[in-house]
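Exam revision sheet. Question 4 asks you to relate a sequence to its structure. Input first:
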Amino acid sequence: MDVIVVGLGAMGSATVHQLARRGVEVLGIDRHSPPHSFGSSHGETRITRRLTLEGTEYVPLAVRSHEWWRRIEAETGASVLTECGVLSLSDLAVDPGAFAVHERAAAAFGIDYELLDAAALRDRFPQFRVETSRVGLLEPGGGFVRPEAAISAQLDLAERYGARLRRGERVLGVEATASAVTVRTDAATYTADQVVLCAGGWLAGLLDDPGLAPLFGVYRQVLHWFELEGSGRDFAPERLPTYIWEGVSRPEEYFYGFPSIDGATLKVATGQLDHRTPGPDQLDRTVAPEEVAAFHRSMIDGRLPQMSARAARSEVCMYTVTPDEAFVIDRLPGSERVLIASPCSGHGFKHSAAIGEALAESVTDGTSTIDLTPFALSRFAR
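Answer key, structure tokens:
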């Protein structure tokens, strides 16, 4: 066996797909049956934009991922990418540099965008109720990716190109020597030349290194689908972009949302990094009615007047977050046969198709076309 990929969510499905395309003998293993709702890669929609707030080093990954989504759609017939635009809403009076990273990325990579004042926002997007000081940056080429469809399509392609997949098989341990890697599961033991660990929240449990495990914190996230009052046509992707609402009076008022894909509900969520969870198996997956009411009251009320306080459903997922909220894509220290590509820190899906390609290049060629050095583990030692 050439390569084993552990975890088949956003990163793992992309990696096993790209390896199989290259004719690599690859085995993919997941403790559940992906796509599933137990990790970080579910919930119908994920934001994708090339003008990423996290830094210009991410832009080539987002650009390349868009290219791969379209290619995957053409090869499978799946609907993966919807370019309805991404609208970032902020207050330049409070934060004059709110869009500085976006504008630098746009200039460096030739990405189109528009700046909209409050009057233009009200005219273009009357679905929002905005303050006079509110401004927006619209990236027309952004939008959303359907995570379940993306994972399914890539796993289908992986099998089409010869990959072997083991679903519902739990990895118990990974042991690397100078000559091989052994992966032990609850069903079998496998040996390969290299292993790529894409286990997300379960990554720390696979690392026999007490110094690394604390770098990967697991945080509970709640997604809500609130019911619309009246017609949902004004909230369809043709009329409403994906949006990110930055807090003005309080930073914790940040939330994000999507156009309606069912004509009846709007999905909204926020990043919750206040309370670290011991691990994914201890994650509280129950959403109390009080959580739903508090989210609507603090985030939605007065901003999207046609979104009712009734939630059709709420779901829990998790972020696996590093101390600097950046990725880790690197060889395991002391073992060149083990690659880590998991902690997405809540903003990974938009980059995942390109990361899968870069990992496949690293495995087969020893280097990748896109620079991955900003995501090296050595930055924590510094």
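Marking note for examiners. The chain has nine helices and 21 strands.
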